[in-house]
């Protein structure tokens, strides 16, 4: 960003903006609606990550040599992404099969 | 550009212990974020709440907000799961500092940790792993418990583990090993009855005999939890300490026998996975309270529960410390 | 000496044999018992990632997420016993994880989720009083050199992808099928009270806020944002920061760099 050529902004226009900002903040509806139309408040999962729980009843998840050796590398995402439009980038869904069995 | 106006989550900047300096001999519950609001709204009649220290080693936000409020109404137990007291290397000093800060902030009535390790070579493995019970481990564990008690300026309780393997190198039984640690460091015992049962079954021993061999006089708290069933390579039962089910009948029966031996004792119902609604846990807690009250009645006429017979004071820490300490420095 | 070392290595690498020196009371093969520990470690750490990357998980589905997370956990196990913010390297890992290459936006969605986790647990800091800001207005000449400390939970994420829309669609806001993933969006993440918010802001506002956060004075930050030429609205951006209690300290200075 330091490379950007900047034009000077006067102290007076900063003062004007700051004054407007203070009144915008005092009147929530206008400022917020325009800037934050996609805002949504949700609590982040607070779930305790440091708990003493052993993997319930199964002894296989950490142990499969198949998983370790390459299963992860042949999987294809199968979740809500299937509902999204395919990005226009060259690596669309159709190419996933070609990455089978490769390791990074 | 560091923020200057740090506002503590509580107006006092910390919470004084409400009254007693030790947990009441009642049943408590593990504190889960799922239940924060329900607890504050309904103020259930619970003896205490217990948190896992590492979950609260964050700067601010909702965890501290709710814990501060809940702590102002209930006694608190802080239970560490990440110190790696049974580790081969030295304790993580930065982690011990974080723990000390948390304990300063919330002034819990009890602090406990595990006879287990969870970090090695700078990597945290997030499980309570087993150690060989030999002289080498003993001197390390004692040194680590000493270090923790000295840094925190208080006595800690050490929890007996649930284990799935044993080591050919072990020269002590688990009970002998814990007995030595208690005698040498003056720490107390957090008797996890479920762990004793799980380990007993997993290693082909009578769980009650394993419990009886522990230094029961040093018991400061009891844990109860549920397990899952699996089998080992020979088809023998292998119980998994999931904390994901109600307390089993076998563990309730052992708990009753333990109470008859040690008297009323702060008792925790642990549930860390498949966490049910608060009323379900409260019902389990009431069952424990029933046993606690029954045993309190039978202990009333007597001189009370057996006195915790700590070893004579002595050794390097001097008389200013609230716990005894004796024996050979490891 | 090497008991714990062999044990620890074998936990994260199932191609290694069960460590030597383990026994079972009935003489059965201890490898089966050791698997319980392998399982515990992997499941616990994958779960820790899953709870910080909920939308990433939903986007790729359970099987893919857990397989990808397991590869990451083995390559980058946590270095601290505090797992609240485990996964700092996970977005970069996703960007290089070839099976996820068909979802080029996935790493940025993960970045957004990680910023939310950090914001959730950031320190509690009170906002600067509006009186103090109003007082600054009286000293117009000092405004260009005025520096701000912003709330420790605040972060700006400029993305080539529609990160906010993708994330919001998983919270029931907007239709996922209608989101065009490769439309650039800038996210502002911060905690107000107990809630972590994700707000889409114009790219120039993102440049301005990031400049303030890195310690540049008001005049300089506004100039950088204006230089983008995309109609930067200084009043609205400052208004948003005030509205969200995001300005925590003012550092007046006459010396503009």
From TrEMBL, chain A:
Residues 80-104 are annotated as: Disordered. Residues 1-31 form the signal peptide. Keywords: Signal. This is DUF2282 domain-containing protein. Residues 83-92 have a biased composition (Polar residues). Pfam families: DUF2282.
Automatic annotation (TrEMBL), chain B:
Transmembrane segments: none annotated. Residues 302-330 are annotated as: Disordered. Pfam families: MbnB_TglH_ChrH. It comes from the Bacteria. Belongs to the UPF0276 family. PANTHER family: UPF0276 PROTEIN HI_1600. This is UPF0276 protein ZRA01_07350. It comes from Zoogloea ramigera.
TrEMBL record, chain C:
Residues 4-94 form the Putative DNA-binding domain. It comes from Zoogloea ramigera. It comes from the Bacteria. It holds the Pfam family DUF2063. The lineage of its organism: Bacteria, Pseudomonadati, Pseudomonadota, Betaproteobacteria, Rhodocyclales. InterPro entries: DUF2063 (IPR018640), DUF2063_N_sf (IPR044922). This is DUF2063 domain-containing protein.
């Amino acid at each position: 960003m330091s490379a950007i050529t900047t034009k000077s902004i006067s102290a007076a226009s900063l003062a004007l903006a700051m004054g407007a900002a203070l009144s915008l903040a005092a009147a929530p509806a206008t400022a917020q609606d325009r800037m934050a139309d996609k805002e949504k408040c949700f609590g982040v999962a607070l779930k305790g990550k440091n708990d003493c729980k052993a993997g319930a009843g199964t002894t296989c998840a950490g142990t499969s040599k198949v998983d370790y050796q390459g299963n992860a590398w042949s999987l294809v995402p199968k979740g809500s992404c299937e509902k999204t439009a395919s990005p226009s980038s060259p690596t669309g869904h159709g190419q996933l099969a070609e990455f089978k069995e490769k390791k990074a | 550009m560091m923020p200057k106006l740090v506002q503590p989550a509580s107006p006092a900047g910390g919470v004084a212990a409400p009254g007693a300096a030790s947990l009441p001999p009642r049943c408590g519950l593990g504190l889960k974020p799922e239940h924060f609001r329900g607890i504050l709204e309904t103020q259930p009649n619970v003896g205490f709440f217990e948190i896992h220290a590492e979950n609260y080693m964050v700067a601010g936000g909702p965890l501290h907000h709710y814990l501060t409020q809940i702590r102002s109404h209930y006694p608190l137990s802080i239970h560490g799961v990440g110190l790696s007291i049974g580790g081969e290397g030295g304790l993580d000093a930065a982690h011990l500092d974080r723990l000390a800060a948390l304990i300063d902030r919330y002034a819990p009535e009890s602090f406990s940790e595990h006879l287990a390790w969870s970090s090695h070579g700078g990597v945290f493995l997030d499980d309570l792993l087993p150690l060989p019970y030999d002289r080498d481990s003993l001197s390390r564990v004692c040194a680590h418990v000493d270090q923790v008690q000295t840094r925190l300026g208080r006595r800690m309780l050490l929890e007996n583990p649930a284990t799935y393997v044993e080591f050919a190198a072990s020269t002590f039984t688990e009970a002998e090993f814990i007995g030595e640690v208690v005698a040498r460091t003056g720490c107390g015992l957090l008797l996890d009855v479920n762990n004793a049962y799980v380990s007993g079954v997993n290693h082909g021993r009578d769980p009650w005999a394993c419990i009886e061999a522990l230094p029961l006089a040093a018991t400061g708290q009891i844990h109860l939890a549920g397990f899952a069933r699996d089998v080992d390579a020979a088809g023998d039962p292998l119980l998994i300490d999931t904390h994901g089910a109600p307390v089993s009948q076998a563990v309730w029966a052992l708990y009753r026998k333990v109470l008859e031996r040690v008297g009323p004792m702060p008792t925790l119902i642990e549930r860390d996975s498949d966490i049910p609604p608060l009323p379900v846990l409260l019902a389990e807690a009431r069952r424990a309270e029933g046993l606690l009250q029954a045993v309190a009645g039978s202990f009333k006429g007597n001189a009370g529960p057996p006195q915790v017979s700590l070893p004579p004071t002595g050794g390097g820490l001097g008389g200013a410390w609230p716990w005894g300490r004796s024996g050979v420095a490891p | 000496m090497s008991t714990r070392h062999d044990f620890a290595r074998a936990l994260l690498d199932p191609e290694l044999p069960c460590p030597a020196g383990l026994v079972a009371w009935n003489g059965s093969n201890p490898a089966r018992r050791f698997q319980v520990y392998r399982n515990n470690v992997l499941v616990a750490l994958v779960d820790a990632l899953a709870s910080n990357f909920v939308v990433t998980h939903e986007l790729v589905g359970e099987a893919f997420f857990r397989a990808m997370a397991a590869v990451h956990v083995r390559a980058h196990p946590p270095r601290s016993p505090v797992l609240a913010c485990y996964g700092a390297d996970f977005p970069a890992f996703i960007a290089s994880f070839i099976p996820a290459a068909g979802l080029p936006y996935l790493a940025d969605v993960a970045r957004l989720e990680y910023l939310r986790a950090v914001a959730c647990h950031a320190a509690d800091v009170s906002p600067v009083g509006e009186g103090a800001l109003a007082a600054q207005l009286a000293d117009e000449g000092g405004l260009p050199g005025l520096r701000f400390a912003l709330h420790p939970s605040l972060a700006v994420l400029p993305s080539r992808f529609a990160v906010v829309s993708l994330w919001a669609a998983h919270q029931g806001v907007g239709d996922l099928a209608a989101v065009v993933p490769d439309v650039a969006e800038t996210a502002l993440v911060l905690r107000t009270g107990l809630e972590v918010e994700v707000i889409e802001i114009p790219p120039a506002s993102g440049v301005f806020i990031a400049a303030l956060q890195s310690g540049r004075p008001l005049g300089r930050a506004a100039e950088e944002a204006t230089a983008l030429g995309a109609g930067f609205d200084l009043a609205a951006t400052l208004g948003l920061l005030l509205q969200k209690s995001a300005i925590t300290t003012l550092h007046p200075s006459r010396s503009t760099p």
